[in-house]
Structure formats: C-alpha cells, structure tokens
Amino acid sequence: MFIIAFIEAKKMKNMKLKFTLTIFTFLLVVVIAPAFAQSDDLVILHTGSGDLVIEFFPDDSPNHVENFKNLTTSGFYDRTVFHRIIEGFMIQGGDPLTKPGAFESFTQWGTGDPGYKIDAEFNDIKHNRGILSMARSTDPNSAGSQFFIIHKDSNFLDGQYTVFGRIVTQESYDTLDIIANITTPAKIHPEISNTEKGATIPGNITAAEIQRAEVVSRSEVSNLLELGDPERITQSVAKPPPISEKYSNDKFGFSTTFPTGWLVQEPEKTQPDAPDVSAVGPLSNGFNPSIYVSVIESEGRTLEERIDEIKNSLQIVMDSGQLEIVSEEFTKIQGKDAHLMTSISNFPTSTGIVIVKFKEVIIETPEKFFQITYVNSEKNFDSDLQLFDETLNSFKILSEDSNPTNGGGCLIATSTFGSELAPQVQQLRETRDNVLLKTESGRAFLTSFNQFYYSFSPIIADWERQNPIFKEAVKITITPLLSSLSILNHVEINSENEMLGYGISLILLNIGMYFAVPAFIFYRLRK
User: How far apart are the two ends of the chain, measured CA to CA in Å?
Assistant: First the structure.
C-alpha cells in the first residue's frame, strides 16, 4: 500500500501544480475582477419532491458542464435516485444502477458509471449550500456521472472536487431540503455510521427519484434568483477541529476514528495492496492529507517477511533517489507485533522539488496484516500528525470484540453472545489462533471456509438481532457443531498429518449429525 499511497500523492500533487497562476494572471483576477458569466443553458431535474433548476460554470469546468448536459439530453439521469443522503451535508445521485431493474441489490448503489471517466477540473469555487459538484473515487480523474448538491456549507471539500454548477430557484432550495430530510437507516439507527454500506439510502425512493431531466434555455425559466458571483477561495481552507467520527466495517474487520470533515471512502480494490479504506482531509497549502488502511491476508507470512516484500518493491524508487526511508522500528501496538516506517519522497516538477512525507504502521495478526499509512506534505506533516495518532490509537480489530452489537458480523458470535455458550466460543477462537493457524493445512482450510462463511453470515447475524426467537433457533442449531469442535481443546496437534486427521474426522462427524441422521430419520418416518 506504500506504493499506492506514493503514486496517489504524486498524482494529486502534480494535478494541483498545473493550476499555478502567474503574477500577471493573479492581478487580472484580483484587480480587474471580471463579471461572472452566466450559462445560457439550464438543466431541470424533475424529482418526486419538486424541481431542481441548475445553472453552470462553463468558464471554470467546461468539460464537466458539457458532460452533464450530454448525459441529461440522452436520458441517462431519468429514473435515477439520489442514493446517498446526508442531512446537513449533501445529496448524491447520478448512478445508473439506481434505475428500476438495473440492480440486484441495494449494495450496488453508488458503484455505477457511464462507462468512461473525465479528468478533474478543480477550481476555487467554494462548496456552499446549493453548489453542484462531481463525485469521484480517490483518483482525482475518476468522475463519470455521479454528482452531489451541497445541503449546507461544506468548505472542507474545496479544491478537492470539481464544482460546475448550482441550483438557482427558491423551489430548488426547498426541494433540496425535502430530499435531504428523507429518512435513511443512519437516521433511524444513530449507532450506524454514514460511511457504512446502505446507511444513507433513502427510505422513500419515490421522493428521491429523478423522474425526468431536461436541458432548457434560461429564458424558459421564471423566478430565477439573483445569486451573483459564486464565492471563491481567497486563502487556504481552514482545517476542521480535530474531532473524530467512528468508522466500523465488519467486512474489513476493524474499527477506528477518522477526523471529522475528512472524506472517507471504500475505493474499488484494483490490486492486492490497494487501500480498502481511504480518508482524505481538506486542502491545505496545496496538498490534501490522507490516511489509507489496507487489510492484507498474511498467507503464512511473518511480519518480517512482509516488511522485506515492501522494501523490495520500493527498491527501484529508492535507488532513483525519489524515496528515502528516514526511520523504522519493530514495536508493539495494543499488545501485537507491529512495524513503524517513516519515509520522505522527492518529486521533481517544473517548479521545483515537492517533498511528501509518509508514516506507515503495519500491525500483525495471525490471519492478516493491517496497514495504516499517513501521507502529507513535509510542511504540514507534523501539524496533522496528531490526527493520525488519534486514528491509530483508536484502531481496533473487530474479531477480538466478543460483543457483536454492530451490524453484520459472525452469526455464531451473535447467537451465543451473553449465553452459556459464549465462553465456549471464546475458547474456540483461541484454539483457532493457537492451533489451526499454526499449520499450513489449517490456514488453507480457514481461508477457504471464511470466504464461504462470510458470504451469508452477516445477513443471518442481522436477522438474529431483529428476531430473538430466530436467534434462539440458530443457537440451538449450532450447539452440536460447537460441542464437536470443542474436541480440539482437549487434543495435542503436533504435525500436519494430525491436523488433517482431526479436521477430516470433525467434518465427517458434522455431516453425519446435520445430514445423515436427519435423512435417516426422515426416511424411517416416511416408510
């Protein structure tokens, strides 16, 4: 992940350097202050809650404006839904997978695109209420069709997303408020974070649906507001206070806190070392601080072997002089073996050398490596380091939490929590870590089993929390399984052959209990 963060930092920095102004241009903008050019074309989004009338900023982001109008004209936005609603922040739409019949599961919402991407056109327009901006992933040049409208001023986004329009009628602002106040799972259950999958999906889809979108002439719309020039950034964006927000994800197996105002995303996993979660902070002195978390299967590797792999992959960059490891040490974090590495990279550009600093922490567990990387400019590195330390100090591996109160998770832990079987489940966890994972066959089995098990376990665990009777039925059903597995607590396994022998025996025993015996009983009853 060090490589991914290294490349992302370079890409983001190079992009911002392209917008450096000459002194002459600066004087033209500040002293002469030309009037804001209004767009002749408007777009009306006819939603289930009212109309949203949008004007554009073609001088600031011509490609985004043209892309949005072309998609509108083609009918691309018709029947799409504002799928991500966060009151007090923004409403996001434009995903073709939200159309009727276009998706198999609501978990797909937010992942659709038009089949192409457009380059960023970052500008100095502030993300104030009513502003239209383009959604993207951690890659600045990954915008496509998804957009968001700011509900309340969110200036921590300034300079990081392409602003290309705003709503321009009173009805539009009223409609924005109505949609932003639609009930979502996160509103019903305050313990659910807005970053969790499905947490911000509207409860009333009809009210959040864009029924039809059209391009019209400005002269065809009455009651346009006189909004004047959009407010622009005149100085470095102020940093939000160092207040943290809880982030938890059972799929990745960890929880932590990220600073409020940092954009938290789960980018598409394009390669094994790519980050699973990224948090990007507000622009400061031309750079966005970032924290990346990557969860990697250990596959039998030790922490030392993992460190050697990282160093080998960075060797070419270090030999070229673009990256230098400043310090590293092995340590303990929350009782686990860990490795800390601080590095500095030098990026030659047309305006000089840009220095970026990294701090990466790798925590080792029997099954996985958790890599947490902090990236910032050398100038801002120390000032934001406290935020990274708070994230690291709050980092928790969920598999060690025996209280399954969050959504999803392990159906066995959920059904037995607080019951007489809870100590037995905890003992089995210790057996898994101290016995099974110490053998190659045990690790191979658990890797395959976990992929299958967690394909359905979170769903059943949620049903258990919703229905106590169902939870009790699951507990009764799995009691024979837990009893058979407890045999491993009373045997010594000193070789691969012994592990295979006990493992196959337990599998056959459970097949007999859950399939062969019921089938025999059913057969006898029919006869």
Answer: 62
| CA pair distance 526, 473, nearest whole angstrom | 25
As a whole number of angstroms, the longest Cα–Cα distance in the chain is 97
68 burial type by CB count under 10 A (0-12 exposed, 13-18 middle, 19+ buried): buried
> Given pLDDT bands bounded at 50, 70 and 90, which one contains residue 90?
very high
Q: Which residue has the tokens 């396994």?
A: 493
Taking the alpha carbons of 307, 311, 314, 318 in that order, is the dihedral positive or negative?
positive
User: In the block, which residue shows the tokens 């009853």?
Assistant: 525
Structure tokens at 224: 């346009």
Tell me which amino acid residue 183 is. T
In this prediction, what percent of the chain has a pLDDT beyond 70?
A: 76
Using DSSP, how many helices (H) and how many strands (E) does the chain show? 15, 19
Residue 271, judged by CB atoms within 10 A of its CB (0-12, 13-18, 19+), counts as exposed
- In DSSP terms, 370 is beta-bridged to 295, 363
Exposed, middle or buried: residue 280 (CB in 10 Å: 0-12, 13-18, 19+)?
buried
Q: Is the dihedral of CA 404, 407, 409, 410 positive or negative?
A: positive
Question: Cα angle at 225 between 222 and 231, to 5 degrees?
Answer: 150
Amino acid at 301: R
From 67, 46, 45, select the one nearest 54 (Cα to Cα): 45
What are the DSSP calls for 68-105, one per residue? HHHHHHTTTTTTEE--EEETTTEEEE--GGGSTTS-SS
What pLDDT digit, counting tens, does each position of 237-260 carry? Answer: 444 443 346 788 877 888 888 887
Contacts of 287 (CB under 8 A, 6+ apart): 12, 13, 16, 356, 376, 377, 379, 380
**What sign does the CA torsion over 81, 83, 87, 90 have?**
negative
- SS3 for 271-305 is CCCCCCEEEECCCECCECCEEEEEEEECCCCCHHH
- Span 211-237, pLDDT tens digits: 999 999 999 998 999 898 999 987 444
pTM above 0.70? no
- Residue 25 contacts residue 199 (beta carbons within 8 Å): no
Residues in the chain: 527
* Amino acid in position 75: G
pLDDT one-digit tens code per residue, 475-525: 888 888 878 777 776 777 777 777 778 778 878 887 888 887 788 788 788
